[in-house]
Design goal:
Helix content: 25-40%
Protein name: DNA cross-link repair protein SNM1 isoform X2
Strand content: 15-25%
Radius of gyration: 22 Å
Structural class: alpha/beta
Largest sheet: 6 strands, mixed
Pfam families: DRMBL (PF07522)
Order of helices and strands: HHHEEEHEHEEEEEHEHEHEHEEHEEEHEH
InterPro entries: DRMBL, RibonucZ/Hydroxyglut_hydro
Number of helices: 12
Mean pLDDT: 84
Keywords: DNA damage, DNA repair, Nucleus
Low-confidence stretches: 1-73
Subcellular location: Nucleus
């Protein structure tokens, strides 16, 4: 089956790394026109009413590999928060990041927001259920990492509007991992839906024309950190802290190997901030990084770990016993190791934005810093984003499988929309 595109306009060091855990793919897993918008009574009612659902007895479980394996002999139902209600024409529903459900009944277009495993799970070279719409970079990763047939991949340029079965589609930079996109849907009746995938909201997003000039009726929101305790600092502040720590450490211990933990994609700005020169990564990661075409990284990748003290390892490998073996594999070239674990889950309320209060953990000649560098929005950023958009409905896409979590998020949405 071939899909017709009907829109317009991935020796010692290498051997050692082969036995390391593979790179994780998940992190854990912000217009003047708005002043003219009609300001009705923007309040959240019962979440299920708000989502247009009369029967709340639906599959709210997240699409994880564990739950998929436990139900491998059953056909899983695609949950409502992955469906886009664009039934303008019969047989044209769309889904976002819903590949682990097999062929979704009636689905004419499968959208992939970005190349992280919890979003593309279910995709493989055997995919044949329908066209996959994604950004150009994500399309390249689908081909080189998962070997998905190019006949099913429909790459879309960021910032360009496409017409798909009468629905206008625009992909927007999500400020998450490379290739990640917000997906904007504009229906013929003027209704607009925005699916954030995974994103880190920023003030720049308030200048995106399609969301600065048009009312968002339904917002599918990445609620990974939708909890007031998560108010971690900006990415820029964390990067400045990491660079400062690295410089001070190398001044005191020149024979130090610097390790950054990363996912298969994501966290690139952390290690590129540390060094503008050589970066060592294993063959599979080098292949992925070169596919980005980024000036400053592609041409500075090293195939030999002895050429540079900056090494990239899977974030799951940042454990003392693994790092000790890795340091020992360097034939005495380095006498100590400084490692960074960059993820929002390392955030502490007691530290807040005062990054100088972060205390590393050390064992022997290895020091590990957990730094709150996140590619998801913190609580304040989510609030600002929602209050800028003032959508009619908000559908959370993360942590929705628990009634308590859903209730808490509902109360936050109510407060934000009343302000």
């Amino acid at each position: 089956m071939r899909v017709r595109r009907n829109f317009s306009k991935m020796e010692k060091i290498d051997n050692f790394e082969d036995v390391l855990p593979q790179p994780d793919s998940v992190d854990g897993c912000e217009g003047g026109a708005h002043k003219k918008r009609r300001r009705g009574r923007l309040t959240q009612k019962n979440l299920f009413q708000l989502w247009g659902l009369e029967n709340p007895n639906l599959d709210l479980r997240p699409s994880t590999a564990t739950s998929l394996a436990s139900r491998k002999n059953q056909q899983r139902l695609c949950p409502f928060y992955k469906r886009i209600p664009v039934f303008i024409h019969a047989g044209t529903p769309f889904t976002v990041d819903a590949f682990c459900y097999g062929s979704v009944k009636g689905c004419s277009a499968y959208f992939l927001s970005h190349f992280h495993a919890d979003h593309y799970i279910g995709l493989s070279k055997g995919w044949s259920h329908g066209p996959i719409y994604c950004t150009n970079l994500t399309a390249r990763l689908l081909r080189i990492c998962l070997y998905v047939s190019p006949s099913f991949i429909c790459p879309l340029e960021l910032g360009t509007e496409y017409n798909l079965n009468g629905i206008k589609i625009t992909m927007l930079d999500a400020n998450h991992c490379p290739g990640a996109a917000l997906i904007h849907f504009r229906l013929p009746n003027g209704q607009c839906y925005l699916h954030t995938g995974d994103f880190r909201a920023s003030k720049l997003m308030q200048s995106y024309p399609v969301i600065a000039s048009q009312r968002i009726n339904i917002l599918y929101l990445d609620t990974t950190y939708c909890n007031p305790k998560y108010r971690f600092p900006s990415k820029e502040d964390v990067l400045e802290f990491v660079v400062g720590v690295t410089r001070r450490y190398l001044n005191n211990h020149p024979k130090t190997i610097v390790v950054v933990g990363a996912y298969s994609i994501g966290k690139e700005h952390v290690y590129s901030a540390i060094s503008k020169v050589k970066i060592y990564a294993n063959a599979s990661r080098r292949r992925i990084l070169r596919s980005f075409g980024w000036v400053g990284i592609s041409e500075n990748l090293s195939t030999n770990g002895k050429d540079t003290p900056l090494h990239i390892l899977p974030i799951s490998s940042l454990r003392f016993e693994i790092l000790q073996r890795y340091l020992a594999s360097q034939d005495g070239q380095y006498t100590s190791m400084l490692a960074f674990r960059p993820t929002g889950w390392t955030y502490s309320e007691t530290i807040g934005e005062n990054l100088n209060l972060i205390k590393p953990t050390s064992k022997g000649n290895i020091t590990i810093y957990g730094v709150p560098y996140s590619e998801h929005s913190n609580f304040t950023e989510l609030q600002d984003f929602v209050q800028f958009l003032r959508p009619e409905k908000i559908i959370p896409t993360v942590n929705v499988g628990n009634a308590v979590n859903r209730g808490k998020m509902q109360s936050y949405f109510q407060q934000w929309l009343k302000a």
